[in-house]
Amino acid sequence: MPGSGPLSGVRVVELAGIGPGPFAAMLLADLGADVVRVDRPGGQGLGIDPAYDITNRNKRSVLVDLKAPDGPARVLDLAARADVLIEGYRPGVAERLGVGPADCHARNPRLVYGRMTGWGQDGPLAQRAGHDVAYIAVTGTLGMIGRPDEPPAVPANLLGDYAGGSLYLVVGVLAALHHARATGAGQVVDAAIVDGTAHLSAMIHGMLAAGGWQDRRAANLLDGGCPYYGTYETADGGHMAVGALEGRFYAEFLRLLGLDDLAPAHQDWTRWEELRERVAARFKSRTRDEWTAVFEDSDACVAPVLSLREAPHHPHLAARGTFTDHGGITQPAPAPRFSATPTGIRSGPARPGADTGTVARDWGMTERVNDDPVADGD
């Protein structure tokens, strides 16, 4: 089921897992790739109805029990016809199951084999269990987030799983795919959340080395330490986000707040506490919607902090179609956008095993892949 996006014609096999692997495969599917998710009988997922697992949209699903005698052969048959395979097992598991890189490359030397883990394929912690919060903790990035008098704030699993994990896996897969098409040689992409998350902090490490960043929370320009880059509570318990960094934006910010006398505090960090207190008091004097109206047509770099349910109704996001409704589910639309090869949501979340027949037909598979799956041996 290829789409019309820039990856139309690219075939991807996803060995089912949770978290960053499925999200990476969804992104490839959103871009037009024909993604076949290999689910295991009995499956695993988010603990929600599969009909709502948006990370499985634009995909198809087949059921394969990798512990059954013919299970590995079924996956290798898919790998032989694919451009990319993605798995998120602990190091060594795919090899023990008979679907590791060597097994797949023996069938398809051009295959890009993408491996998604938290700790990476090697290193002292490679075999340890973990989740997003532990991975970002050791990279130093979690310790940057939050107030100085409170524990570090957990940024959901957006920073590690998806930014440091999924997106780096996709970048690696696309780079390796380019190389494979130029040379005929596939390779393994080792995408570790610790590596990607550390890489995201490159600019800050440069600032730290130059003496322009303090190695503690809420003490810097971009981490909430600066009173004109952060969030403030409003009279109704809402919040406004402020990012008035540059001088002209800061001046506009003060003008609309009615605090022009604080203009010299922009470059005087000794006055930042005074600035913070007066700005906080002003924001507390009106509701979030009232302040939104005040700043609406300005370059003060101020915006309301919206909830997940509110975000799709923001006028700008609504006008751009940043969110869309498909199958009764409001969800983010595919991103980014392309002028010549537009993307879209072609189908809702794949149901485990629902597409075995069509995949066998479209991929020219043997009868073995189209057989009913053997019951899980666990």
TrEMBL record:
Residue ranges of coiled coil: none
Record-level Gene Ontology MF annotations: transferase activity
Keywords: Transferase
PANTHER family tied to this protein: ALPHA-METHYLACYL-COA RACEMASE, SUCCINYL-COA--D-CITRAMALATE COA-TRANSFERASE
Pfam family, one: CoA_transf_3
Keyword ATP-binding: no
Region (Disordered): 331-378
Record keyword RNA-binding present: no
Lineage: Bacteria, Bacillati, Actinomycetota, Actinomycetes, Kitasatosporales
Protein name: CoA transferase
Gene3D superfamilies in the cross-refs: Crotonobetainyl-coa:carnitine coa-transferase, domain 1 (3.40.50.10540), formyl-coa transferase, domain 3 (3.30.1540.10)
SUPFAM superfamilies per the UniProt record, alphabetical: CoA-transferase family III (CaiB/BaiF) (SSF89796)
